[in-house]
Every structure is written in structure tokens, then in C-alpha cells.
Amino acid sequence: MITLLLAIISLSLLMILHELGHFLLAKLFNVKVEGFSVGLPPKILSFKRGEVTYSLNAIPFGAFVKISEEENDQDKRSFVNQAASKKTAIFLGGVGMNFIIALLVFTLLFTIGFPKSLLPSNYLISSSSSILVKYPLPQAFLETGRFLSFVLTESLKGLKIAFGKIFTRLDVSDLLGPVGLVAITSRSFEYGWRYGIYILGLISYALAIFNLLPIPALDGGRLLFLFLGKIFKKPISQKTETWIDNITFALLMFLAVLVTIKDVRFFYLH
Predict the structure, then answer these.
(1) Checking CA distances to 36, which of 44, 66, 67, 177 falls within 20 to 30 Å?
(2) What is the largest CA-CA distance in the chain?
(3) CB under 8 Å, gap of 24 or more: what pairs does 73-82 form?
(4) How many CB atoms lie within 10 A of CB 198?
(5) What is the DSSP string of 210-221?
(6) What is the rounded average pLDDT of the residues 172-192?
(7) Burial 15-46 (b: 16+ CB within 10 A, else e)
(8) Phi and psi of 54, rounded to 5°?
């Protein structure tokens, strides 16, 4: 039960920090932020500080930042009235936060001792009889960069295979949803804190990679719309973008249901 609660809190924190990345970049560029919510509805309490309404919701999973982006809003601080460079930075704020978390986690592990048993079998390291891979801080930082590059390459290969299975036969066996993430994180902490933060580092990095995919409703999708607007010298209307996002979100939720059913059967009904 303790590791389960720790897993839920840790994963929720990753999502909160992702949204915090968007929030901080918006505030840095003086873009109007209307709300910041922690957890999923129903709402437990809320308070307003300045122009931002902060909310705490009952389900302790996830977070959401609401940035003003009404298409007809004449407020110069509205998101829609910002330069493309500022919009890009705000979109990348969440991804950047997840990447920083992964960078810190793996640099820490390579500094204090990275269990060899956690490293992929095809990841090459200098030979050592120790069960821990340990480097001085500067070398640990460089090794982290090499490790993240390796994980990125392997993740993209895995995503290609996973999407192929989804589109050809609606097979979601290679995907993990919230239930699966909680189960894996909880079990990893049972083996020790090094294992637990290793999984959290991987999940944080995976969130960064996934959110950069050019899929509507994700940060990468919004960047794609922004890029297309620049190419055609005409911004895609908020109505069109919202319509496409809603359809994509509905499809993602359908996949999420399938993945959740699969995760429950695999992790809890075996």
C-alpha cells in the first residue's frame, strides 16, 4: 500500500511539474494565465491569487493549466496574440520540465551508482566487476546524455512498432496507461528507491517524447499547427484547431480505455 501511494504521488508530481513548465513560461512572457488545477475533478477547494484561480481536485492524478487564448480577445496578453517564438517556448515548457527531471534523475544515478541490472542489455558500458555503474559528476552528466540518446532511439523504434500494431489491428499490447504506469512504478519501489526513481526518470522522459509527437491535442500537435500557420502565412483558426483536437482527444480516450482494460487484466487479474 505504501509503494502504491508513493507511485501515485510520484506520477502525479511528474504531471504537475509538466503543467508547471507551461505555467512558468507563460508567466515569464507575461501571458495571461487564468487557472492552475492539481488533480482531476470534482473540485475540493480553490482560491484566487491575482488573476489565477488555483484549484485542488479530488482525484490525485494529473494537473492542468488554463492559459487565456480566446481567438477574438483583444487583450495583448492573450496567448493568441503572442509571437510564434513565445508560443513555441510555452508549448515546450512542459516537455522541457520533463526532460530536466529525467536529466537530473539519471545524472544522480550515474553519480551515486546506477544498478547494472537496470541498464538495457544492448547499452554498452565500460567493463566493471561492480554491480553499480558509478562515475564522477562531470562524466556522469556526459553518460546521462549518452543514455538519454540511446533511450530516445529505442523509444522511437518502439513507437513505430506500437503505432503499426494500433493502425493495422487495433493492438494496444505495447502501450501503458495510468493503471500500468502506477503498477510498474509501485513494484519498482518495492525493489528499492534506486529502482523507483529509475522508472520515474524513464516515465518523465517518455512523457517528454510522447508530448513532442505531432499529434493534435498534444504539445507536438500544437507546434505542428503553429508551424503550418507559418508555412501558409495564415494562422489556423482556433475553431478548426479545437475541432481537430477534440476528435483526436476522443480517439486517444478510446485507446486509453482499451489500454486500461489491458493493464488491469495484465497487472491485477493474473
Answers:
(1) 177
(2) 65
(3) 75/32, 77/30, 77/31, 77/32, 78/31, 78/32, 79/26, 79/31, 79/32, 80/238, 82/29, 82/31
(4) 20
(5) HHTSS-TTSHHH
(6) 92
(7) bbbbbbbbbbbbeebebbbebbbbbeeeeeee
(8) -100, 130
Following DSSP, what letter does each residue of the chain receive, concatenated?
Answer: -HHHHHHHHHHHHHHHHHHHHHHHHHHHTT--EEEEEEEEEEEEEEEEETTEEEEEEEEEEEEEEEE---TT---TTSGGGS-HHHHHHHHHHHHHHHHHHHHHHHHHHHHH-EEGGGS-TT------SSSEE---HHHHHHHHHHHHHHHHHHHHHHHHHHHHHHHHH---TT---HHHHHHHHHHHHHT-HHHHHHHHHHHHHHHHHHHTSS-TTSHHHHHHHHHHHHHTTSPPPHHHHHHHHHHHHHHHHHHHHHHHHHHHHHHH--
Integer Cα distance of 168 and 3 in angstroms: 37
Q: Which three cell numbers stand for residue 68?
A: 487565456
pLDDT exceeds cutoff 60 at 127: no
pLDDT for residue 156 is more than 90: yes
C-beta separation of 166 from 213 below 8 A: no
